[in-house]
Design goal:
Length: 372
């Protein structure tokens, strides 16, 4: 049985289908190649975008103060940002690297000494007596202690060296991100227009509102997470240096990292308070203890004040998005997670309230969002 010849409409449909398939496949291949090419720089570029969004209001103020010169403003902000990263960052890296190298060299030469413990250590609750005994044994018989624990201490020192190298690499990546952010500031209007157009395509006319939501969320996380972490670490570092705590730069970095990943800094502060009591006068140690507890708990006051401020989303949505994103993607996920969960929350909320023609809740309009 002979099949009937395809009609003109069938041939046109087949031609259009094949054309569409080829076009879509070519577009997918092109996008995949572009993503693969920029993948080594993706983290730096994303950080540059985040930083440029976060500091854009500061850029506008600098531009106004400089008489409407955007290039000079962007250059000045970039230089200040690089200096703020390099100066304390290099100090922390050098402190960590120097401590690790000194420990490693002393272990290799066998020329290491441990000062005897203060008598007050014996009176510490639970662990005081045992700690005093072990500490005294290590102080009086360093060779025997090294023979027993030397390999573990040496491995810890090597890990500290690798951590210092990774810290230096991360510092250089952040410097590159700050420089890229300076360039993005000059093209902020075009970038915003592109974001609005893309969101319009996806959401059907909600581009302006969703773009404002993303901007507000990024700035909220910057203030509520990174801002609080920097404030807390800076306050802790001042206390460490004033009380004469060894490796103060390293402990300041630990406080900063813990604050960023949402681990209470008081966990580190309490053992440091005990350590300070072992070498500092009782009065100074007590003052440090009070100060350290206040610093360790300061995020409980600062975070509610700064996180979620200026963004038309529940604070819990922003916080869960930031923490969940960080677990999935690292530190950069603080922003990615908060933005994605915020957009999802807003889209789903709009769909629920507008599904049957209902008016959206009062919190839905973007009128309260900060302008760029």
């Amino acid at each position: 049985m002979i099949s009937p010849a395809p009609t003109v409409d069938e041939r046109r449909f087949t031609h259009n289908m094949m054309t569409s398939f080829i076009q879509i496949a070519t577009l997918v291949a092109l996008v995949a190649l572009c993503v693969r090419i920029i993948d080594p720089f993706a983290g730096i570029i994303v950080w540059g975008i985040i930083l440029s969004v976060a500091i854009y209001p500061l850029y506008l103020r600098f531009t106004a103060l400089l008489g409407g010169r955007p290039r000079t403003s962007a250059t000045l902000i970039t230089l200040i940002g690089v200096a703020l990263l390099l100066v304390p960052g290099w100090f922390v890296v050098e402190s960590t690297l120097g401590t690790a190298q000194a420990i490693h060299a002393d272990l290799e030469d066998g020329d290491i000494s441990i000062p005897p413990p203060n008598e007050s250590v014996r009176g510490w609750p639970l662990v005081g007596e045992r700690l005093y005994t072990a500490w005294s044994a290590a102080s009086s018989n360093i060779q025997g202690t090294l023979a027993e624990h030397g390999p573990r201490v040496r491995a810890a020192a090597e890990r500290l060296l690798h951590a210092a190298g990774a810290l230096l690499s991360g510092l250089l990546h952040f410097v590159a991100s700050v420089i890229i952010a300076g360039f993005f500031l000059l093209f902020a209007d075009k970038g915003r227009a592109t974001s609005v157009a893309l969101c319009d395509r996806i959401s059907g006319g909600q581009g302006e509102r969703l773009t404002q939501l993303m901007i507000a969320t990024i700035r909220s996380v910057t203030n509520g997470v990174l801002g609080v972490a920097v404030i807390q670490a800076a306050l802790a570092g001042v206390g460490f240096y004033l009380v004469g705590l060894p490796a103060a730069g390293l402990f300041t970095l630990v406080i900063l990292v813990l604050a960023i990943v949402q681990v209470p800094a008081i966990i580190v502060m309490l053992p440091l308070i005990v350590w300070v009591y072992s070498f500092a006068p009782a009065g100074a140690a007590t003052v440090f203890a009070i100060y350290a507890v206040l610093v360790g708990l300061s995020d409980n006051v600062l975070k509610p004040l700064l996180l979620g401020r200026g963004v038309d989303l529940p604070v819990l949505v922003v916080l869960i998005g930031a923490i969940g994103g960080m677990i999935q993607f690292g530190v950069i996920g603080l922003f990615i997670g908060a933005v994605i969960l915020g957009l999802g929350y807003q889209v789903i909320t709009d769909w629920i309230w507008n599904r049957e023609g209902l008016a959206a809740p009062v919190s839905a309009p973007a009128a309260g969002l900060p302008a760029t």
